[in-house]
Amino acid sequence: MVLGSGVYRIGSSVEFDWCGVSAIRALRQLGHKTIMVNYNPETVSTDFDECDRLYFDELSYERVRDIYEMETAGGVIVSVGGQLPQNIALRLHQNEVKVLGTSPEKIDAAEDRHRFSQILDSIGVDQPAWKELVSVADAEKFADAVGYPVLIRPSYVLSGAAMNVAYDAEALRSNLELAASVSPEHPVVVTKFIRGARELDIDAVASNGELIKHAVSEHIEDAGVHSGDASLILPPANLSAEVLERVKDIGNKVARAFEISGPFNMQIIMQKNEQTPDHPDLKVIECNLRASRSFPFVSKVMDSNFVEAATRAIVGEGVPKPVDLMKGSDKWP
Q1: What is the reported pLDDT for 181?
Q2: 83, 206, 224, 240: which has the fewest C-beta neighbours closer than 10 Å?
Q3: What are the distances in angstroms from CA 239 to CA 130, 171, 198, 244?
């Protein structure tokens, strides 16, 4: 069973539709019967001939489990349809539904801002100064210590929902209330907002914690524009071979720490360090253990289908050997 992206939204339909269809096609190449659960009439994934069974139905825990049990499915893929399937992954796993690929417990650790930041600290991956929200007073104290602006980051959201920059205490209080209302069951983390920095995207595939392939894209806009709305350059125009190697090393560390089998995406801030001008700071600000909206883009630019590789890693069949597609990217035509 492959779970799609659900209702039509700008930025969460066409790209994730491509990912879902690519996953289905890869599964059929491997000889598996396929079931798509999606309810977006505008996309290819709901064409009747793309899969063996199509359920044009809601992506809720109850409905997905009903279909899973009725079809006696061999497993569910939750990492190619955006945020909706991720939101029910842990509950499916806890109720005896076999979720294929990266463990839902690891997905939950990455989606939970507090746990994710703790894990990054434990593996030596740098990130902006952060603090989990305990009270508004604590948040204001943290903001005063690191200096405004600060970024309010709720957990389990798509496209930066309720993620806002606060430039003063009044904005901090109102944005904290909004973030808590959007994701009330999960922690809200406040981080230092870094201005005047570059943002990098790494789209990657891993198998059993080993990086198989990755792409590093550079944002044209300064950090602060959401990656789904930003303009990306691939191959990157202003990154040295040393920076690309460091980004790959971060990808390897994260893949091992979260025992990833399937797709994942990270956003990294690159900021000039006055003390080491040739060695900029690299700070991870986001990681999703799923395909991102840029997976179709990097797959087509690099002529290498990242979702096909991810699907093979998810089911553990015909997994491609690790390859560094970014080697020599500065010489691409």
Answers
A1: 54
A2: 240
A3: 27, 35, 10, 7
